[in-house]
Amino acid sequence: MDLSIVISLYNEEESLRELIEWIRKAISESYLKDKEYEIIMINDGSTDGSWKEIETLAKEDEHIRAISFRRNYGKSAALFEGFKAAQGDVVVTMDADLQDDPEEIPELYRMIMEEDYDLVSGWKKKRHDNTFTKNIPSKLYNYTARKVTGIKLHDMNCGLKAYKNEVVKAVEVYGDMHRYIPYLAKNAGYGKIGEKVVHHQKRKFGKSKFGIDRFFNGVLDLMTIYFLSKFGKKPMHIFGLLGIISFLTGGFITVWIIADKLISQAHGLKFRPVTDQPLFYLALVAVVIGTLLFMAGFLGELISRNSQNRNEYNINKTIR
């Protein structure tokens, strides 16, 4: 199999037939017309007639394979199942709302196969979305993601992407981590990540399933994945360090307050009782927090060392 096109969808009944016809046209009119391809459609618990439409389309086109969830699990779950089912050497993902242009597929395929990219992400340089709810949050989100991940992509959350098959098999997409597949791929050792400006269409049917809240959720997910990638297998390196800093800071302040009181008392100078100083209690709190952080790191190490995947590594090549 040369190409797999993975499409996750939720309540997109009106756009499905037009999308499939557009994909067929884009492939048949390009150099991909002689390639073997499949279209994998994942129905993420749609409550409209999306699945019936998919069944009809699948009877008309042998290239279509489909999976349907009993309820809505989210885009990450849909992509996970799509990646698991994909057999093509190149895997292209796209949304079903007709905002992603299938005519970009041949060039994305070429960049993977000829330029040897592990992953190529689309960049909707000119967007046709609401400026306040989509464009501005998207720019802020992508700026933050570039700074944290070190991946210079302008549109990390673009649904139109192409991957080597081995990349989608190496990453585990869960929760809302579909936003950070490039970062997951980079952490798995696939660092040749490219970008292509893609044509963005105005939504033709229905309305967007995402609001401004995805910006805040995206930042929280970014913090989670950054922490897991940096300290997932060595929690003591973060908790232990913070615990030591907090413990030593609190301990030093406590000793200094007590010593200052004793020295003043010995020289007959006016002094303030230790227990009357708020700083003393803050110092004790710092000592307690430091101890708890250190213990959290210690427990994290125990859990990590008993994890079944503690010695799982992505091996690239071997000889004999």
Give your account of this protein's structure:
- This protein is of the alpha/beta class.
- It has 2 domains: 3-231, Spore Coat Polysaccharide Biosynthesis Protein SpsA, Chain A (Alpha-Beta Complex), CATH 3.90.550; 236-305.
- It is built from 10 helices and 7 strands.
- The chain has a 7-stranded mixed beta sheet, with helices on both faces.
- Strand 1 (3-9), helix 1 (13-28) and strand 2 form a beta-alpha-beta unit.
- The longest helix has 31 residues, at 236-266.
- It is elongated.
- The mean pLDDT is 86.
Features:
10 helices; 320 residues; alpha/beta; 2 domains; seven-stranded mixed beta sheet; 12% strand; elongated
Round the Cα radius of gyration to an integer and report it: 27 Å
Query: Any idea what the CATH architecture of the largest domain is?
Result: Alpha-Beta Complex
Q: Give the CA-CA distance, first to last residue.
A: 28 Å
CATH class of the largest domain: Alpha Beta
Q: In sequence order, what are the helices and strands, one letter per element?
A: EHEHEHEHEHEHHEHHH
How many DSSP H or I helices?
10
Structure summary, number of beta strands: 7
Number of discrete domains:
2
Category by helix and strand content: alpha/beta
CATH topology grouping of the largest domain: Spore Coat Polysaccharide Biosynthesis Protein SpsA, Chain A
For the sheet with most strands, the description reads: 7 strands, mixed
What would CATH call the homologous superfamily of the largest domain?
Spore Coat Polysaccharide Biosynthesis Protein SpsA, Chain A
Shape: elongated
**What proportion strand?**
5-15%
Helical residue percent band:
40-55%
Largest beta sheet: what is the strand line-up? 3-2-1-4-6-5-7
Global mean pLDDT:
86
Low-confidence segments, ≥5 residues, pLDDT <50? none
